[in-house]
């Protein structure tokens, strides 16, 4: 049993699909299966149920919990050695949603690699909730995403209050509010609680998403039962459907510049709850009990500077956190 075998086991335990995991690891399915068989022989247990579909056994679940900790400790030790090494060769496991990475990483990475050219960065693009859990378990070094409340296990630095907007076209407003659309539009430019838009159809985030839970609070507060045309985990899908006027949708402020560049005629109304603008609290976080190498600390400092700059150019000019 070695660390590589444990790593292969953890990846298969997450994916629960031999073909996909082997492709991700750039090894053959036979090679992957041999590593798992060695582990099972070493411990004398079955780690996976093979039928009707691949799933962890109870013993597999126990090994997974331990293996994640072992690999996290080994990664932290390698990071400590990188601080000692004159060449500073190490790695940084960063959790960040793909679209948010597209916004900030082009500004962060050039500054970071100018100082730390030998540090490799491994990106994880799962949901904010999943990545927060991965940070707590030691599977990530840093996380840039949504945290509404501080986690006692984590050190978190607020970066930006990413305001939420309702997006729709004039054509959609005219269709459902032919007599009052212009009044409704003017009234909503500084903020809306959704009470005036009960007649519109909506394209909504999936109920499991943090953005959806926030939007549902607004609907509930306004006593509006939304007419749901479509639900999806992809805001990109909603953006692509905008020209067809299937319904209004919601997006965060950091997405607006690119969207409004493509559709300058679109309406983007800031969402309010109890007369207050609402948004996502974007933070950069690390684990309190893990020592961050200097390059990770520098990454945090650069990220704070970049987000302060992002805040000054967004529509509505939200204020960055101090």
From TrEMBL:
HTH lysR-type domain segment(s): 1-57
Under the heading CDD domains, the entry gives: PBP2_LTTR_substrate (cd05466)
- Protein keywords: DNA-binding, Transcription, Transcription regulation
What Gene3D superfamilies does the database record attribute to this sequence? 3.40.190.290, Winged helix-like DNA-binding domain superfamily/Winged helix DNA-binding domain
Fetch the Pfam families from UniProt: HTH_1, LysR_substrate
- Tell me which domain of life the UniProt entry assigns to the organism this sequence originates from: Bacteria
Similarity field: Belongs to the LysR transcriptional regulatory family.
Q: What name does this protein carry?
A: LysR family transcriptional regulator
Tell me what organism the protein belongs to: Enterocloster hominis
């Amino acid at each position: 049993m070695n660390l590589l075998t444990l790593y292969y086991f953890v990846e298969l335990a997450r994916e629960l699909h031999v073909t996909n995991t082997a492709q991700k690891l750039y090894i053959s399915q036979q090679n992957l299966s041999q590593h798992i068989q060695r582990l099972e022989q070493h411990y004398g247990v079955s780690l996976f149920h093979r039928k009707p579909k691949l799933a962890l056994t109870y013993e597999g679940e126990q090994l997974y919990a331990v293996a994640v900790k072992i690999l996290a400790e080994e990664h932290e030790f390698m990071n400590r050695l990188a601080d000692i090494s004159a060449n500073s060769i190490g790695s940084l496991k960063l959790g960040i949603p793909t679209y948010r990475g597209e916004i900030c990483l082009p500004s962060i990475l050039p500054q970071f690699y100018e100082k730390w050219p030998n540090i490799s960065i491994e990106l994880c693009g799962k949901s904010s909730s999943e990545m927060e859990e991965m940070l707590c378990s030691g599977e990530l070094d840093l996380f840039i995403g949504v945290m509404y409340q501080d986690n006692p296990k984590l050190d978190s630095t607020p970066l930006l209050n990413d305001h939420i907007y309702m997006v729709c076209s004039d054509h959609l407003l005219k269709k459902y509010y032919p007599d009052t659309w212009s009044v409704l539009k003017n009234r909503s430019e500084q903020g809306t609680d959704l009470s005036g838009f009960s007649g519109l159809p909506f394209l909504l985030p999936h109920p499991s998403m943090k953005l959806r839970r926030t939007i549902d609070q607004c609907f509930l507060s306004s006593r509006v039962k939304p007419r749901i045309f479509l639900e999806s985990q992809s805001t990109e899908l909603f953006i692509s459907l905008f020209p067809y006027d299937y319904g209004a949708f919601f997006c965060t402020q950091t997405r607006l510049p690119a969207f409004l560049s493509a559709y300058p005629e679109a309406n983007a109304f800031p969402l309010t709850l109890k007369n207050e603008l609402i948004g996502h609290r974007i933070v950069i976080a690390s684990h309190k009990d893990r020592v961050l190498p200097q390059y990770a600390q520098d990454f945090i400092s650069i990220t704070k500077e970049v987000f302060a700059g992002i805040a000054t150019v967004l529509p509505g000019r939200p204020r960055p956190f101090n």
